[in-house]
Amino acid sequence: MYLNKCQIFGNLTRDVELKALPSGSAVAAFGVATNRTWKDKDGTKKESAEFHNCVAFGRTAEVIAQYMKKGKPIYIEGRIQTRSWEDKDGGAKHYRTEVVVETFQFGPSTREDGDRSSTSAQDSTESEPQKAAGEEISAEDIPF
Question: Does 26 fall in a domain?
């Protein structure tokens, strides 16, 4: 068995570009930056950033394009894919490695983004109303 799966949590490096395929299906392209910190052999703190090209299709692409913009945090699960193409005049061959988004969650929002602390693509459907703070929960309220 083989596995091609990646998880990325970072910030968008540019606004989402939403386009339509000839079939009419939506496709969204965007970049995500991740960083890591470590200490070198001398104990000096080092930091580096990686930049990931991401692509989403269908309803996932539409939701990401609607709610995400440059600088916002996002968590992505997907697979890595490398595409290749040649220049129209028969010139050089180009390659692009990207993450094909399968599922995602919006990252935590800041106060200026609104009241919600985090959300996901699955949260876009209506859910049952929450109990008000301080309201007691009885055994009948538990669904199992």
Answer: yes
- Please state, in angstroms and rounded to a whole number, the distance separating the CA atoms of residues 107 and 117: 8
Provide the whole-model pTM.
0.70
- Count up the domains in the chain and report the number: 1
**Residue 12 host element (H or E):** strand 6-12
Beta strand 73-86 pairing with 119-120: unpaired
Cross-strand bridge partners of residue 28: 18, 56
132 falls within a domain: no
Q: Look up the CATH number of the domain holding residue 99.
A: 2.40.50.140
For the CA atoms of the chain, what is the radius of gyration? 20
DSSP per position, 69-123 = -TT-EEEEEEEEEEEEEE-TTS--EEEEEEEEEEEEEE-PPPGGG-S-S-EEGGG
Give pLDDT tens digits for 82-108. Answer: 999 888 887 888 999 999 999 999 988
